[in-house]
Prior knowledge:
- By secondary structure, the chain is mostly helical.
- The protein has one domain: CDP-alcohol phosphotransferase transmembrane (TM) domain (Four Helix Bundle (Hemerythrin (Met), subunit A)).
- The protein is 82% helix and 0% strand.
- It has helices spanning 3-22, 29-53, 59-82, 88-110, 119-142, 146-151, 153-177.
- Helix 2 runs antiparallel to helix 3 (59-82), helix 3 runs antiparallel to helix 4 (88-110) and helix 4 (88-110) packs parallel to helix 7 (153-177).
- The protein is globular.
Amino acid sequence: MNFPNVLTLTRIFCIPALVAILLTNFPGRDIIGLAVFVIASLTDWLDGYWARKKKMVTVIGQLLDPMADKLLIASALICLVWLDRAWAWAAIIIIGREMAVTGFRSIASSKGVTIPASVLGKVKMGVESWVVGALILGPQYVGKYFPAAKASLWLVIILALISAMEYYVRFGPKVLASQR
Length: 180
């Protein structure tokens, strides 16, 4: 287990803490929730940077890292729906996309095709993280900009769908060809 993979596991272990914080009403919940979310999100950037810089990219890391991202975002979105800070339909579309891409990656992996994160997928994750972070802070801290933060879920949905299509267009033929 190398350092980037430990960072990925750290992100996964942050998820129950984030959920417990967001679903428990106490003073400072939003700030502490944001802090845990930011720490988890930073491990995403750091593990990828470290793995590439130190040439520590592994197949398990390429599979585990996107799974950790999807678990983090899905958990946060579900909590935000419960807090009435995100629309349920938007969360379903975003989480559904994440599940579809993860399933596609799993099928590809079983066929010997590794699908690395694309630039567009990374942009989607970055925008998604900023939007989720703003929604975690909520109207108390975001103030008059909260409706804009909530409306930014539309941008996340658009990027999510376009990046999913990119994966299917780029890697679909390789996966299908490997079945023959």
